[in-house]
Amino acid sequence: MTGENKKEKKICGAKAKAMFAYGIIQLGSGVVSAVALVAIALSLCSLKKESHVFNECVGEMQTNGMSSSSAVRFCNGGK
User: Fold this and answer.
1) Is 58 within 8 Å of 68 (Cβ atoms)?
2) Tens digit of each residue's pLDDT (9 = 90 or more) over 35-69
3) Considering just the CA atoms, what is the radius of gyration of the chain in Å?
4) b/e per residue 27-66 (b: at least 16 CB within 10 A)
5) What percentage of the chain exceeds 90 in pLDDT?
6) Domain ranges in the chain?
7) Are 65 and 79 in contact (CB under 8 A)?
8) DSSP string, 43-79
9) Has residue 5 got a pLDDT over 70?
């Protein structure tokens, strides 16, 4: 009987190690996902600021007498 108990303990030990590794991998992937979401959120904030500046540029060029298409081209860096 002691031989059977040792085999069962070895099998349970291997399963426990595998489940622990699985848990660590799941936790790591959750952290990576959270970091990716934060990076996306920050990039959207900068995109919002950039679009605000662009809209201000177009508005200012239109008040200076440019047409809408000319103002957009100027604010995009065109001549």
Assistant:
1) yes
2) 999 999 888 888 888 899 999 999 999 999 989 99
3) 30
4) eeeeeeeeeeeeeeeeeeeeeeeeeeeeeeebeebeeeeb
5) 54
6) 2-75
7) no
8) HHHHHHHHHHHHHHHHHHHHHTT--HHHHHHHHTT--
9) no
